[in-house]
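Input sequence (295 aa), recorded before submission:
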Amino acid sequence: LSASILAGQAIVGVHFSEKLDAASAADPFNYDVTGVTVSAAALVGPEGNVVKLTVSGVPADGYNVTVNGVMDVAGNPATDASVAGTISAMMNTVLFRTPDTDPIVQGEAFTWGEEGFFVSSGGSDIWNDADACRFVYSEFTGAFDARVNVQSLTGTHQWAKATIMARESLDSNSRHADAVATRSDGNGQNQLTWQWRDTTGGGSGSLAGASRINLLENANYPNTWLRLVRPDTESNTFMAYWSNNGQDWNLHSEHTIPIGDAPDGVLPETMFVGLAVTSHDNGDGVVPAEAVFQS
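Predicted structure, token format:
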């Protein structure tokens, strides 16, 4: 049993070791969180062992989560199981809006530990001259090698996206590079691809269709792994890899963001690196795209 929150977020993620009975897992009266009231509980993710608790405020440092009455699928109950909750030091969350009405449906993000994240968002796209999505990130200084398992992605549009991304800034029109997974079901785009924005506020670029990877044939959920590498801080070069097991990696492509005049010179030593989701649909009342990530 483990529990965690993103800094400043009134959502507690609780991770169990076993697949849970859906009805007991979704009963908010089966949980107690120190200093706040649990108003709702929901079972999320493809493995059936993560619960999202909506609470009345942001839990203070040192909070505990107690579980009583939640059962696994075999009918074994958790009786007064308690765990010290953590506050994720690694990740923050931001909503990119272009303009203030895109996305209309803002979604949410939460964590159940430093290795598991749920991110949902509306938004027209991560594309063109600015992005509309939710981004959960850390600041990385210097070269980096970031990897993530995209366990699931749902949405209403074929181009709903879950990405691992590196951004120059937290402005919606920032230069960036991102490895992208789309929906793989019958109505999805069924692709892994690679995108970038070379200039601040400029258009976006992407791999041609023939260079994209077929998800169903190569690395379908929950075995979709993305990797984004910045090999140095001088060349503005990034490399994207994919895998179906997190061990054997295939170089998908690399891209060098051109070094031009200010503000589009050499990218800074410190960049914002993390997980982004967009529904590719900004209609009012749209069901947001939802992705579960595990590192």
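Checked by second reader. The chain has a mean pLDDT of 94.
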